[in-house]
Amino acid sequence: MKLPEQVKIVEVGPRDGLQNERAAVPLEVKVELCDRLSAAGVANLEAGAFVSPKWVPQMADSAQVMAQIVRRPGTIYSVLTPNLQGFEAALAARADEVVIFSAASEAFSQRNINCSIAQSIERFVPVAAAAKAARVRLRGSISCSLGCPYQGEVPVGAVVDVVERLAALGCDEIDIADTIGVGTPKRTRAVMEAAAAVFPIERLSGHFHDTYGQAIANIYASLEVGINIFHASTAGLGGCPYARGATGNVATEDVLFMLQGIGIDTGIDLDAIVSTGQWISGLLGRRTESRAGNALAARRSA
Ligand code: HMG
Ligand code: MG
Q1: CATH number of 272's domain
Q2: How does 62-75 read in b/e, with b if 16+ C-beta sit within 10 Å?
Q3: Residue 267 has what pLDDT?
Q4: Which 8-state DSSP code applies to residue 169?
Q5: What amino acid positions are annotated as catalytic residues?
Q6: What residue owns the CA closest to ligand 1's atom 20?
Q7: Which of 145, 175, 248, 298 is buried deepest, with most CB atoms within 10 A?
Q8: Residue 286 belongs to domain spanning
Q9: What beta strand segments (E) does 82-232 contain?
Q10: Which of 239, 264, 256 has the alpha carbon at shortest distance from 292?
Q11: Residue with the nearest Cα to atom 31 of ligand 1?
Q12: C-beta separation of 194 from 160 below 8 A
C-alpha cells in the first residue's frame, strides 16, 4: 500500500487543547501559542471557538486572540461556529475557515450542543450558506465516530449518514473524530473506508484523541487507507468538556516524529514544536503529554 507523500496537520492545540483547561489561560499566552505554531510552519491552525461562553468559558476571548495573532501568509486560521451567531463573530474576526460540528451519536449531540443531530444540521444550513456567500472555507466535524461516552458503540452507518449530510451542506473538509479515543486500527480503517466511499478521500481528516494510546496506530491505519489530513495538539493538550475522562488529541510531536520516520512531509519544524510543547506545558504547570516531545527535549539537555 502506497502511503501519501504529503500530509496536512491541522494543529488544534489552541482550541481543542486549551478549551478543557479549568483555569483561565491568559490571552497573551493563547496569542503566543498561535504565533509560535504558525511560525513553526503549521499550515492550518484551529485558533479558537465562537461558542457560548457559558458552555465553554475558556474560549470566550477567541475574538481577541484572532485580533492579536500575527497572520502567517499561507496559514489557514479556523474557528468553531455552532450557529449563525458564532459565524458572524468568526467573519468579523477574519477567520479563513469555520467549523460546524455534529456527532454520530444522538446522546453526545445533546450534551455537546444541546440539540439532536438532525436539529444541528438544520442549524448549520444558514451557517453553511453564509460561509459560501462570504467565500469562507467550511469544515464539518463528526464527534464520536468511533465510540460515544454515553451510547457506547456507534454504527459505521451512523457516521456515513452524517458525512453525507455535511457533504450536502458543501463542506470542504470533513473530520472523522474519535472524541474519546476508543477507536482501534481495524475499526478506524472500516470507518475511514466507509466515509471515503461517500466523500472525496483527500478532503477527509482524522481527529484522534489519545485516551487509550491508540491514536498513532489509528493514524497509520488511516494513512494506509489514503487519508492525508490529521489533527493534532502540541504537547497533547486537551480533552473535551462534554466527554468526561477524555484526554487530549494525539500530540503533534508524536505525529511529526512518526511521519518524518516514514518520510512524509508536513512542512512543520518538529524542533520548534518540541520547544513550544515544553513551553506551554511549563506554563500550565505540567509535563508534556508527548512521548516524542519529552524524549527529544531530554536529548537536547543531555
Ligand atoms: P443553547 O443554550 O442551546 O443555545 O446553546 P441558545 O441559542 O439558547 O443560547 C444560549 C446563550 O448562549 C444565549 O445567551 C446566546 O446568546 C449565547 P443569553 O441570552 O443566555 O445571555 N450564545 C452564544 N454566545 C456566543 N457565541 C455563540 C453563541 N450561541 C449562543 N455562538 C450552543 C447552544 C450550541 C450555543 C451551545 O451548546 C454551545 O456553545 N456549545 C458548544 C460546545 C463546545 O464548544 N464544545 C466543545 C467543542 S466540540 C469538540 O471539542 C469536539 C471536536 O473536537 C471533535 C471531537 O473531538 O469530537 C470538534
Ligand atoms: Mg476533539
Answers
A1: 3.20.20.70
A2: beebbeebeebeeb
A3: 98
A4: T
A5: 240
A6: 54
A7: 145
A8: 8-301
A9: 97-103, 137-143, 173-178, 204-208, 229-232
A10: 256
A11: 86
A12: yes
